[in-house]
Structures are given as C-alpha cells and as structure tokens.
Amino acid sequence: MATLSLTLQNPGPGLVVLDPDRAALLHELDALFTGLATQLAAPAVVGPPLLPAEGLARLDYFRNFPHLGVAAARFPDQAVDALAAGKEVAEQPVSPTGYLLPSATCYGLLLSLAGQEVGPEFRLTAIGRCFRNEDHYDGLRRLWGFHMREVLYLGTADGARQHLLDSREFIEDLAGRLGVVLSYQPANDPFYDRTGSRAKLMALDPVKYEFVAEDGTAIASVNRHRNFFGERLGITSDGAVAHSSCTAFGVERWVHAMVLAHGTPERALHRVRDVRG
Fold first, then answer.
1. Distance from C-alpha of 98 to C-alpha of 85, rounded to nearest angstrom
2. Is 123 helix (H, G, I), strand (E, B) or coil?
3. What's the CA gap between 191 and 81, in Å, rounded?
4. 3-state class (DSSP) for residue 88
5. What is the CA radius of gyration of the chain?
6. Which residues make Cβ contacts (< 8 Å) with residue 247, sequence separation at least 6?
7. Coiled coil located at which positions (predicted)?
8. Fewer beta carbons below 10 Å: N end or C end of the chain?
9. How far is the C-alpha of 45 from the C-alpha of 60, rounded, in Å?
10. Where do the domains of the chain lie, and which CATH numbers do they carry?
C-alpha cells in the first residue's frame, strides 16, 4: 500500500482524518458487517443526509436526546453579503432550516416507511455518517461524526426478537474470528432526563444491549424497539402495528478495537483480510 509522506492532522476536536491503513480497515470491516445483512436478506439502501425536526419530534427525540442533536443552519442574506465582504464568520447570524444531522442511521429509514404496510418480515441495511453533540471527544472512541452500519427489521414481535438473537450470534462469532474480546451488557443510553419514564423503563426492562471492548468502548449494539416506531409512524405488518429492532455497528469504534487488540493498524488490517479470505 502507498504511504503518505505527511502526517494527517485532525481538523478539530472530535474530527479525524483516517490514514490509509485505518481507512482500509474501516472499509474492510464494513464489508464484514454487511455479511449480517446478506445472511438476513436485508437489501442495502442509502439513507438521507438530513432529518426533519418535525419527524424526529414524532419519535420523542427531543424529549430524550436534545443534548445530542446537531442542527443544520443556513446564512441569511445579510450574513451572505457580510461574508462576501470579508467579515468574520463567527460574527454572522444563522437561520434554522428545520433539519438536523442524523445521530443514528435508522431514523431516516424508519421515517421513510411512515404510513406503509411492510409485510411479515421486512429488513433494510444502510451505512450512514452520524453526528452527536457529545460533552467530550476521545480519539475514535467518541467523535462528532462517525459511520454507523445498521440492519433494521420490521414485522412481528417474535421476528424482532429473533433478529436480535441472530445478530448477537453473528457479532460474537465475528469478534472471535477477528480476535476482539467483547462483553455483552445492558446499555446506559445518555437520556437527557434520567428520571423520565423512558429512562426508568430502560432500567427495568433493557431494550438495548451493547458489545463492549476490553477498554470499555461500546462498538456495536442490538436494539429492541417494541412497537414504538410502528405506532408513532403508522407502520403496519400484516395489518397490525409493526414491531421493530435493529443492529448497529460503530465502524470507527471497531477500527479502534481492532488496533487495540492487535497493536498496530497494519496487523489489524492483516487480520481482517485473513477473515475475509
């Protein structure tokens, strides 16, 4: 592989440029993750780069995660004129657009299915660039923007549970072949109001479990939505409110876990390519 004569510097906190080895590792890993989609017959789609605030409000996004949202804004005419005249960017006002950058890949897919009948077993997969306004950033473990591969299921309650069982088996087998040691544990999602009803319900009946690397980094998750999205978005399966579940891979976090497990990006990349055959 060609090498770079320069060091790639991070543009800012929570922002990274992956060097050639880490970039290759990201793409090779995602190719392995799509094996789950192939196994479960989930066709690939491309999700939207922005999400309407109105749609997210229907999903209680702003009640649960207002602190994570990254809003899209535009410069009004007066700011455009000022910028063209050489004025400082930081001094210019911005206008809301009513859209946010995605914080998870599945939101755009679910919103695209609103009001539709999906049949008894419906799946999609997509990889998206996701964005989260975190309280701190930490290398590839916690980023402003990152890639998330998801495999989404909609159908029956039993089907949603089986999707997660199949996903867990796939992830644990893949991690073993890649030499990554993982633990499986209930998620501790960053609800804005930890005393709220949804946070309390999560504590009593966890609906999200994470696969956690040896240094505590959560690199994948399985998520049981019950019939929440089906009810909020009017999605049905065989005439009944659809249940849903999804499997998510944080791709940069897998890159981090592979380098942690194998010592260098080069050795990690060699291991991934061996597994891919």
1. 28
2. strand
3. 40
4. coil
5. 20
6. 36, 150, 151, 163, 164, 167, 171, 220, 221, 222, 223
7. none
8. C
9. 25
10. 20-48+103-276 (3.30.930.10)
Residue 192's pLDDT band (boundaries 50, 70, 90)? very low
Mean pLDDT of all residues in 75-95: 96
Instruction: Quote the pLDDT of residue 195.
Output: 54
β-pair partners for 248: 150, 221
Average pLDDT, the chain: 92
Here the tokens at position 164 are 């997660």
Bridge partners (DSSP) listed for residue 185: 210
Residue with tokens 């061996």: 274
CA neighbor of 33 nearest in space, from 148, 162, 142: 148
User: Exposed/middle/buried for 11, CB within 10 Å: 0-12, 13-18, 19+?
Assistant: exposed
State the alpha helices, DSSP H only, in the chain.
Answer: 20-39, 53-58, 61-64, 77-84, 105-111, 157-178, 197-204, 228-233, 251-262, 265-276
Edge-to-edge order in the sheet of strand 95-100:
51-52, 95-100, 71-74
Beta strands 51-52 and 95-100: pairing type? antiparallel
127 and 105 in contact (C-beta within 8 Å)? yes
What strands lie across the sheet with 208-212, from one edge to the other?
121-131, 145-155, 243-250, 218-226, 208-212, 183-186
SS3 112: coil
Span 153-162, pLDDT tens digits: 999 999 999 9
Taking the C-alpha atoms of residue 133 and residue 123, their distance in angstroms, rounded to an integer, is 29
Mean pLDDT of 216-231: 95
pLDDT in tens, 127-151: 999 999 998 999 999 999 999 999 9
